[in-house]
């Protein structure tokens, strides 16, 4: 046998037993870190499975209450509500209607869980517009940023009136966080907090979500969502949101943007969230269904990666299931 220099430093020593590994783990995922996104659809009387997101459904008003109660039971941090109206128009009128599906669902869920969960709402027009854009269009067909802001302000007040705890402006219009903050404050609702989509990229990984909200997007979102090539721009967007009054900033998508998440975490002094989006969910589900990866460890590894990269909060379609796995 060849003589070797035997190593003195042996990192493997701390990996020998589960107890040792557990003791020195740098990060952990807990149910409280997780937020479940849910879809509520108008005019259906049974939940409708979303084929592009196996295991996820469009809820009825009744079934979303049950899902919320289960989520509270599982001890997760919150719910993010998305509305799927049966009628869409050019200006997304359903978003402002107090009897619109999202506003009704907010009130239903708050009535069900009270403050046991943080109830959040997607504050965006794309689910409500016939053209599928996050804002309204001007006569030339371009997104009208400032007219859209006026609608976001009204939408925030509608959500607040329905009892929401936290709104999530996700349309990537310039100035949206400031406008929403001042609308809420002006209406005496400084208690409603803002989860700002700080860095939100124009991503191909949103694909499965489009079926979930029945979106018929014409064109793409590249004039408002960010270019995947840019990380500094993501940090700048997040800093602007902090200046405008964001309580939490989010990076979205998740897995392909963990570097941006880390940079944002280092740049701000408020909690940072990550959105483990539909495409990331469906890739794992599809591979697992084919027997190509081991599903539960893949889910837990994904969530751990978000925490390691700096996420304080993780929006994930696996929230309730993961909370149960973590308790085991
Ligand atoms: C916009 C919005 C989108 C998602 C959440 N909010 C779609 C988009 O920006 O194109 C995507 C979420 C997911 O893919 O899981 N209201």
Automatic annotation (TrEMBL):
Binding site for 5-aminolevulinate 1: 210, 221
Annotated GO biological process: protoporphyrinogen IX biosynthetic process
GO MF term list: porphobilinogen synthase activity; zinc ion binding
GO CC term (a single one): cytosol
rRNA processing in keyword set: no
One protein family per Pfam: ALAD
Binding-site residues for 5-aminolevulinate 2, renumbered to this chain: 278, 317
UniProt xrefs under PROSITE patterns: D_ALA_DEHYDRATASE
Keywords from the named record: Heme biosynthesis, Lyase, Magnesium, Metal-binding, Porphyrin biosynthesis
Positions of Mg(2+) binding: 237
Pathway where this protein functions: Porphyrin-containing compound metabolism; protoporphyrin-IX biosynthesis; coproporphyrinogen-III from 5-aminolevulinate: step 1/4
Gene3D superfamilies in the record: Aldolase class I
Record's subunit section: Homooctamer.
Family: Belongs to the ALAD family.
Function: Catalyzes an early step in the biosynthesis of tetrapyrroles. Binds two molecules of 5-aminolevulinate per subunit, each at a distinct site, and catalyzes their condensation to form porphobilinogen.
UniProt name for this protein: Delta-aminolevulinic acid dehydratase
